[in-house]
Each structure stands twice: as structure tokens, then as C-alpha cells.
């Protein structure tokens, strides 16, 4: 089988997958000589874009505490596109922690997964990839086929996996979010907010820091055999 070369610009996953009208960044910062009033909305008004951001919604949080340092329309419900996969990755990492799967577990590809379209690595129903390989494909190329294959493997169907996604969203307090699929292809009612993206991103980074082994890949390959 032909070798698939995966390339990625070395910037954080949660930034490269953001759609144009949502901006979110969650990490740790050390501030010096800053004016705190420049980082918080005046009088709690989320509609005032005093930083003149082009994004329709934005939030900046401190990773270790979750404190909101800046926000602009952070609860506005918008379509998340492939940022949806942050929740998918979170559930995969939790399954790894529980021992339900390992990085060496072989995951098959269904007809449904192979026909997802969009960003993909063209999975074939005759092949299996390890969880490690699936994570690479999801993080590096936002592979819809691998995302659905993992969802089906973990929950029996994509629909049941989406139920788990919404349950986890409720546990995290993501009140602006309704997931309709696990990959982010536009679908009516599939919405979230920059604040909720920050919540699930923080959960992923704080409790599953090994995800950065995949989100910081510069160049790698699959199917080296």
C-alpha cells in the first residue's frame, strides 16, 4: 500500500482547526507589566469588541485555573467545524486511561467511515490502523474517516458515540453545546461556543497531556509497511 505522508505546520491543534468566526486559545501564560482592564470585557459586556478582533467570538483562559482573562461574545453559539474533534479526542484519551483500548489496538474501517469525505486519509474497509495511527491522522490531518472509525469502535455506532459526547459536554458545563456528529461536518443544530471549546480543550490538556505528542507533530507517516 502506498505510503501516506502527513505534514503539518507546527502550530497548536486547537488553533489550526478553528473556523474563521471562532477564536479560542487555552494555555498557561506569564504576564508582566500588563493592564488587567485590557483583558476583560467592560462591565461584563460580552458584545464589546474593544480589541477589534475580526472573530465573531473569542475567549482567553488560563489553563491551570480556568480563569477567563478575556472574552468577546464567548457564549455565542456557532458551528465548530473540525474543532468538534477536540471532544472526540477527549473521549478517546479517556478510553485509553480506562484500559478499554491501547495505542496498539487495531481499529477497523466500516463502509460508513470510508465514505465520510472532507479531510481524510482514504481509509479502506480492508485495512485496520492502530489507535496510535488513528490519533496521528485525526490530529494531523483532521481525518473524518478515522474519527468515525474510532467512534464506531468505542461506542458501537457514531450515533451512540455522539450521545457520549453530549453527556461529557454536560459534565463539563458546556451549556452552549449540542453535538450532532463526531467530526464537525456542518449539520443543523450542531453548535458550540468559544467558551465551551475552551472548557473541553482545558480538560483535554490538563488531564491528558500526552495528546500534545500528536498535536505537535511536524512530519510523520502512516502505513510504513
Task: Label the structural class.
Answer: alpha+beta
Rg from alpha-carbon coordinates: 18 Å
Order of helices and strands: EHEEEHEHEHHHHHE
Number of helices: 8
Strand order of the largest sheet: 2-3-4
User: Major β-sheet, in short?
Assistant: 3 strands, mixed
Please give the number of β-strands.
Answer: 7
Structural features, described:
The chain has helices spanning 13-16, 85-98, 111-114, 131-141, 144-155, 158-171, 194-207, 212-215; strands spanning 4-7, 22-27, 57-62, 68-72, 106-108, 128-130, 219-222. By secondary structure, it is α+β, with helices and mostly antiparallel strands. Strands 2-3-4 form a 3-stranded mixed β-sheet, covered by helices on one side. A two-stranded antiparallel sheet has the order 1-7. The protein has a two-stranded antiparallel ribbon with strand order 5-6.
Could you outline the blueprint of secondary structure elements for this entry?
Blueprint: E1 4-7, H1 13-16, E2 22-27, E3 57-62, E4 68-72, H2 85-98, E5 106-108, H3 111-114, E6 128-130, H4 131-141, H5 144-155, H6 158-171, H7 194-207, H8 212-215, E7 219-222
Helix pairs in contact: 2-5, 2-7, 4-5, 5-6
In short:
With 225 residues, the protein is an alpha+beta fold. It has helices spanning 13-16, 85-98, 111-114, 131-141, 144-155, 158-171, 194-207, 212-215, and strands at 4-7, 22-27, 57-62, 68-72, 106-108, 128-130, 219-222.
Amino acid at each position: 500500500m502506498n505510503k501516506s505522508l502527513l505534514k503539518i505546520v507546527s502550530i497548536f491543534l486547537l488553533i489550526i482547526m478553528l473556523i474563521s468566526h471562532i477564536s479560542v486559545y487555552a494555555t498557561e501564560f506569564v504576564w508582566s507589566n500588563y493592564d488587567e482592564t485590557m483583558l476583560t470585557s467592560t462591565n461584563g459586556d460580552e458584545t464589546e469588541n474593544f480589541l477589534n478582533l475580526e472573530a465573531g467570538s473569542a475567549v482567553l483562559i488560563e489553563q491551570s485555573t480556568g480563569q477567563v482573562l478575556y472574552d468577546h461574545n464567548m457564549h455565542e453559539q456557532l458551528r465548530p467545524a473540525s474543532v468538534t474533534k477536540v471532544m472526540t479526542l477527549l473521549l478517546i484519551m479517556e478510553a485509553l486511561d480506562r484500559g478499554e483500548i491501547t495505542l496498539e489496538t487495531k481499529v477497523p474501517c466500516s463502509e460508513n467511515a470510508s465514505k465520510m469525505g472532507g479531510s481524510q486519509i482514504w481509509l479502506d474497509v480492508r485495512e485496520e490502523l492502530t489507535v496510535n495511527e488513528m490519533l496521528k491522522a485525526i490530529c494531523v490531518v483532521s481525518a473524518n474517516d478515522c474519527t468515525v472509525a474510532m467512534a464506531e469502535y468505542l461506542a458501537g455506532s457514531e450515533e451512540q458515540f455522539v450521545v457520549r459526547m453530549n453527556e461529557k459536554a454536560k459534565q463539563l458545563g458546556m451549556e452552549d453545546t449540542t453535538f450532532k456528529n463526531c467530526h464537525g461536518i456542518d449539520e443543523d443544530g450542531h453548535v458550540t461556543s468559544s467558551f465551551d471549546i475552551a472548557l473541553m480543550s482545558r480538560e483535554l490538556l490538563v488531564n491528558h497531556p500526552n495528546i500534545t505528542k500528536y498535536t505537535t507533530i511536524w512530519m510523520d507517516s502512516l502505513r510504513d509497511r
